[in-house]
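P.,

For your records, the input lines for the assembly:
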Amino acid sequence: MADAQQISLTIEGRQVSVAPGTTILEAAKQAGVLVPHYCYHPGLPSPSSCRMCLVEVEKAPKLQPACVTAVGEGQVVHVFSEKALEQRKGVLEFLLINHPLDCPICDKSGECELQDYVYREGPARGRLHDPKRFNPAEDFGGDVLYVTNRCIMCTRCVRFMDSVAEDTVLNVSERGDRAVIGVFEGKGLTHEWAGNVIDICPVGALLSKDFLNKARSWELDRTPSICPNCSQGCNAIFETRDNQVVRMRPRSNTEVNQYYLCDSGRLDYRWMNRTDRIEAPLVRRGDRLAAADWDEALRAAALHLNGKRAFVLASPMLSNESLWMLSRLVEKTGGKGAFRVRRGPEAPLPGAPDLALRAERAANVRGAELFGFTKTDAPLAGMADGDVLVIADHDLAEADVAELARASAVIVIGTVLPEAARQAIVVFPSTNMAEEEGTFTNIRGRVQRYQQARSGPGMSQPVWWAVGDLLTFLGEGAGHYSASETFDALAAARPEFTGMSYETIGLKGQLMAGSSEPAGTAG
Amino acid sequence: MGYPHKPHPRETPILSRHFGDAEARTLDGWKKRGGYRALEKALGMTPEEIINEIKESGLRGRGGAGFPTGMKWSFMKHGDGKPHYLCVNADESEPGTFKDREIMRWTPHALVEGAAIGAYAIGAETAYIYIRGEFTEPLRMMGAAVKEAYAAGVIGRNAMGTGKRVDVYVHKGAGAYICGEETALMNSLEGKRGNPRPKPPFPAVAGLFAMPTTINNVETLTAVPHILNEGPAWYKAMSHSSPKSTGSKLFSVCGNIARPGNYEVEMGFPFKDFLYDVCGGPPPGRRFKAVIPGGSSVPIQTMEEAEATLMDYEGFIAQGSMLGSGGVIVFDDSQCMVKQIARLARFYAHESCAQCTQCREGTAWTTRILERIERGQGTMEDLDTLLSLSKQMTGTTICVLSDSCATPIVSGISKFRDEFEAHITGKRCPMGATAAA
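Structure tokens returned:
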């Protein structure tokens, strides 16, 4: 947009130019000033009801709600003037009179916007000498528990269900200070995306039953990642405590998932913490698999692969880096690759453009196809008799296990050893996606990075690392020392990724050459 | 219940002229009394001509805010290609106010006529009359009148045979005070929870169904036919003090007074004469103590203030209050002001829509404090807290319900502080009264 069409104003002494129609609150964000607020959420319509964001605009007779007031040319806005601070202090005192102040037992403590603003700007002591109102907690269905007493009636949850999920389940029941969030008769928060009300709740009123009393928020380590549970590639934060993933939450990306994550995605993280893992390379000695070091296992695998074609059964949950290295193994041996993807019903979020829990429940279907793996429900059917079957973290679900007998040898690179693959001659321990860094390519061709959230068990390594060394043993100089270096080699080799690197991809991802996201996605 | 009194000689019965006259309720009876002449005339005029007449008359909104009606109508842009709507605010819920009820009970056609003229003037083909749910008799009367008017072709597709369309619908509210707030009324009409909307956008830009909308009070619209019939100069002449307040005004009088009821006087009438002469003064053996002159949302007046007041928009402001809706609540010396103020606060706490923090929490909190003081368990610190909370509740919310709760608290404490202190120091109500449960 040309500068002539921009509106210039001063917020807390900082000059900022924004598009006409921008609210003072959003303009302040651009100026680096956070206007405290509760009911406002960038993804929802604003009722301007919490009255927390009232700011002083010079020449205006009254304080103005920053969340719904459009900027005006030459406006001078004060967010922290005495008048604005006094008013916010008042709002905070009102919000606290019926709030139980049970922070020590509240899951939201440490990441609570009421706590934050009261700490920063609230009154030092309350003036309430009368009993507080009490309402019992209520199970809202799905993963959501409503702790009524903590609710500040910002109605973000009601508006999310109405205008984003488009499933009218929640309401404001009663009036005055008797008002509570209600659930319509016979309904519950069972919508696939309903769990988002927990994240958008600014206080501890809506809690995840799954996460209930599991950890204090300040004990958590947070890692930017990608939800691996379908091909949408929603940006996520993995939260870990004592090396265990304990919660997955959305990370905002207006190009992909706005501010949201579906329930199927966010609740499917326990597999990342599995303890029945392969911890060391295993090599077959007679009728048993014995622990070995990497060199010995790599040498054994290379011996079996020498002169044979590799048939690679790959998991569509593997990174671009791993799948590309596997594709090089296929190429080197003149073999083939295939994969199977688990499916489920698609569940869109109607109020967000092009966002759905996708039918294909794996993170990198697009990448697997791109690197030459054939998507099929009978992945072993393509294997020629006498091929060396390389199973790359594939669970063999629904694979015809009898087919395994047609392979001259079975090599497993994986997190766990499927029962059906006990006949393997070599087994390499690999990390799962939470234990490594890498990239996925989503359904629209967006390449997105995920970072390591926990450490892998024992001697496990990423698949790309194992395959790289294996190729080295096969006489192909292919060893890379980091995921980003592997990606650089990939980007140099594949035109779709030309010019990309971990730096250019950043935390928001980057579209592959020739890909596009549908119009309507913010850009 | 019939109409309880014959007009006092000092009244000016214009809107109330036919109160108590059952025949005026029917279309024929109404026509016999000069009804629908103004509508016929109006449909022959251009909307601009009507608006100019109303502007000229000085008519101001009778619902409480006193906004000039002609100017409000002129905000509606003709020819914008959008449907326009007229909303008639018949949700009269302001405690102490019951004038619109009588208009609708006795002269329903006066409102149909006024609404039809108003709709035509703002370029609307549809008028919705939003009637308070508890008003069962007015609802019945309005329903019958609208039906009759349709059957006679007075309104409808071809109103008065002029080819112009004016539809009038009667809508029953569900009994929430807040639905008398104009934007909450629109939400309620749309089938949503009656929550006030943030302004802007103002109703003239995006109101009912997001279309340009004007909302007028029953009494305001009922005055319109008289202005068109008699001319703006006639209406303007009914002004005794301030030239900005013209015409006649209905006052609903209740409380400790000899003759409660509805009275219609000209703007600028002396309030002292009104209370002592027209309404008959205090009950026998009693003295007036205080007056809330314009519905429960306006500041309480002491008798010194009330007796010095001239009854118009400016006159009430000059004496520390507001004309508001014209609901006069009178207290005599048997009343405990703490109890009365606690009762008002409880009303607002009950009716708060729960959107804005200050209102949702503030109305309930101030009620709890006031009730505690009333029980004799208050402290002097509570009075400071009440004034501080009232300040937080004024001018900070979407609508003025929160301000309305703060108003009697602030005026009550400042004007009757001795009664509050007597409760606190004596640890009981000196009048022996207790707050109603």
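Two observations worth noting. Chain B has three domains: 22-236, 248-332, 337-426. The longest strand of chain B covers residues 164-172.

Regards
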